[in-house]
Specification:
The structure holds 2 protein chains of 2 kinds. By secondary structure, chain A is mainly α. Chain A has 12 helices and no strands. The longest helix of chain A has 17 residues. Classes of the chains: A mainly alpha, B alpha/beta.
Chain lengths: 199, 303
Amino acid sequence: MTTPAPAAAKTYDLSFARWVRDNVNGGDKLNLCMQCGACSGSCPIGVQMDYGPRKLFMMIRAGMKEEVLSANTQWNCTSCYRCVVRCPRGVPVTYILQDLAAKSAEFGYAKGPHENKNFAQAFWWSAATFGRTDERLVTMRYFFSLGFGEGFKRAMANLKTAIGMVKTGRMHIGLPHMTKGRKGLKAALAKAREIEQRN
Amino acid sequence: MTEKKTMTYYPGCSSQGSGKHLDESLRAVMPEVGIEMEDIEDWNCCGASIGHIGGGQLPNLTLTGRNLAQARKRGTQDVITGCAACYLNTHGGNEKIKADVKKKAAVNEALAEAGMSYDGDLKVRHACEVLVNDVGVEAIEKRVTNPLKGLKVAGYVGCQTVRPFAGTEAGGDYDAYDDPSFLDDFTKACGAEAVPFKHKTACCGGSVAVMSPDRTLHLMKAIVEEAAKEGADVISTPCPLCQTNVEMYQPLINEKFGTNYNIPVVFYSQLMAVAFGMDAQKDAALQRNTIRSEKLEGMAKKK
């Protein structure tokens, strides 16, 4: 994919890099990036990204907010941390991408049935509701969040795998496993959300 | 190994689902090499690599805060976990809470709603790091009564077990990020043969593989392909997500690439349980693999 170059006539949103520094986890280290590309070169699925991390970071500096927040880069990160351990400048690349994904979702850039966003939401629903990840429910909730037809298709395609997991006792039948102190956990999570929004 | 130690064990959600055989085999082998494990009471999910997207950064960190508050009730003994994602979140979150007074205060303000608090006094460790640093490979070898002679093992470490903490002081500084040796050392200690394996720390796709396998099947194919080329009888891994992904997606890989792979993917702790002469089912949990290894099962003791 060709990188959208900042148009000469356009006025850049220069506050974006500063916003990333102040609001994105690890963003305070972004100014250490020297554009060497060790991150993009190390990335297992960098070729599937709109832009590798190196390019994305330069786009942040150029103030290309729309392009950055609507990129698929942050959503393709598999969290392998190879870029983090290889970065000669100590930029926490994975953490920055992970939080950019959260910001993209928060500000409505991940539109429609969005695989990563929907999966993350199904995951959090289980963690916050039961205190634990129920792999069965997360998967089904995720599948059907993509639409009924798509959900049905994916459920059918995974039927054989699911049966194998049930047979080996790695998927149970019945109620989800739950944390007993769910009430307290929910209250703590709500408070954490409140604190985060206050700051 | 010098003395027996007791640690607080965080099993994590996969221990009750797809990674049950990691949990069962760890519980079996760790006490055999002197590490007693007591569960964190009423633990919760760690948030894995995506919790912050649905929940937000601080709520995600609060999940770890609650687990550590519960662990702290048992005293200041080390927290141990076998799951890569649990380790990453719990260890990483713990270090964050220790280093950042503001975060620590915020987490504690949230935890107060559940009548809990965490002072940052614990150390969170990966089971593999404990095996290397506290137990020692020689002690593992010494415990072996049923060496896995002739079993060829491709040691697939994956990503998050070693990255980004295996080379840090807080992470126990026990191995390298790209070419770690601990897993092959475990294999050899069990009397098996470690085949050369360049994809040792290649990524399987992690949670992206779970939500949309099409994007990452080629990554898993490369891993299985090399293991097959090297003549491995089994792939061994420490990570529950790697184990499930690389095992359960082999039929899809075959469908997409016209291949015919069917290689068992087991945990290092399952190999240890067999090599320690423990029970094939109760301790090594070999019946939980969807691709079974006849060769390994043939070596296992049945009680």
